[in-house]
Amino acid sequence: MRSILQTVWCCVAHMPLLTEYKLVCIVLVMDRPIDKALAACGGNQSELARRMGGKVRQAHVWHWLKTGVIPAERCRAMERATGIPANELRPDIFGTDSDAA
Description:
Helix content: 40-55%
Low-confidence stretches: 1-14
Distance between the termini: 16 Å
Mean pLDDT: 79
Largest sheet: 2 strands, antiparallel
């Protein structure tokens, strides 16, 4: 069973039409590998890019977030940067733990 990381963002929102304040909470369920990798870097796209090294830039990380796909050639660098195994980042390319058994 996969673990699901959940982040709760709460803020106080002013409702101008109602002239009152309400607590607004947004729950983000992060079960995509790129979301887990980003969470390992404190949610900072630039930090993830820096840790990966090479020619990886924040714009690349942004693109991976939008598409949900990490290029296979970047998985080993992301594994070193975040500690998340490549087979979790791209099980379609690197297989799963159960494939090894």
